[in-house]
Amino acid sequence: VRMVALQQSSDVSQFYNDTGICQAIAKSEAFDLLTMFVIVVNSIWIAIDADYNNAGVLTEAHWTFQVMEIALSVFFLFEWIVRFGAFRRKWDCLRDRWFCFDSLMLGLTLFETWVVLIVISASAWYFKDA
Asked: What's the pLDDT tens digit per position in 72-107?
């Protein structure tokens, strides 16, 4: 099994649909370049956030930190949806190790940005009247 896995091509586009908007976007060089650019921006933003954001939670951060966190999470969700939508058989996404890694990272990002934000906001609203 290990040898077969190592011999498989790293080009997952062979598992993509032949038609459709998602596969067209996912196969485009412009999409790859945009995604790499956003990853670099995200890396730089993590450093800026670590140095200048003193808030304990996103809701207490300056609006620029909130906007950037939300914008980056929305882009990465868009990228994931496009790539997932490009697969002919959705189970084939599990053959793409980068997609699996991205799925884990996206899940953590969405949890941190949206779930925690909603829970904190709901808690503040609920306990405000208590």
From this structure: 999 999 999 999 999 999 999 999 999 999 999 999
CA-closest candidate to residue 12, choices 70, 97, 130: 97
Length of the chain in residues, anyone?
130
Return the amino acid letter for 64.
T
Q: What is the DSSP letter of 58?
A: G
Amino acid at 75: F
Task: Give the torsion through C-alpha atoms of 35, 33, 15, 12, to 10 deg.
Answer: -90
Q: Long-range contacts: 70-78, Cβ < 8 Å, 24+?
A: 70/113, 72/38, 72/41, 72/42, 72/45, 72/109, 73/109, 73/110, 73/113, 73/114, 75/38, 76/38, 76/102, 76/105, 76/106, 76/109, 77/106, 77/110
